[in-house]
Amino acid sequence: MRRIRSTKPYASTIAVAACTLLIIPTIAAAAGDATALAAKYNCSACHAVDKTIVGPAYKAIAAKYAGDAGAAARLERKVKDGGGGVWGPVPMPPNNVPDGDVKALVESILATK
């Protein structure tokens, strides 16, 4: 049996590159949406990506809860209900944020590097 060789040896590489180019804008859009949501709900008044303002930095939150399977659900409740005592004496007030937006915000925060 004779094996047929491809006349386009880079076809699979091109296909992988094309798929990657389709995925990267989606990831960037998701990050942009989380940034827009943080601005919309005034999260940036107390939080920043890499520095403590009133509340902890997103990077610090991500590091603290890295590997914690239940962190997302607990943080979603904390955003909705408020809380305090974990990061210092200033409590976080409850926030009126729709569940889908809270989920997107928390996922984005926990993915911060």
Description:
The chain is an all-alpha fold. It has a single domain, classed as Cytochrome Bc1 Complex, Chain D, domain 2 (Orthogonal Bundle). The chain is 53% helix and 0% strand. It has four helices and no strands. The longest helix is centred in the N-terminal third of the chain and has 30 residues, at 11-40. The radius of gyration is 20 Å and the shape is globular. The N and C termini lie far apart (52 Å).
Shape: globular
Number of distinct helices: 4
Distance between the termini: 52 Å
The string of secondary-structure elements, in order, is HHHH
> Could you say what the CATH topology is called?
Cytochrome Bc1 Complex, Chain D, domain 2
Q: What ranges have pLDDT less than 50 throughout 5 or more consecutive residues?
A: 11-31
Count of discrete structural domains: 1
CATH class: Mainly Alpha
Helix content: 40-55%
Any idea what the radius of gyration is? 20 Å
Total number of beta strands: 0
Largest sheet: none
| DSSP strand content | under 5%
Fourth-level CATH superfamily = Cytochrome c-like domain
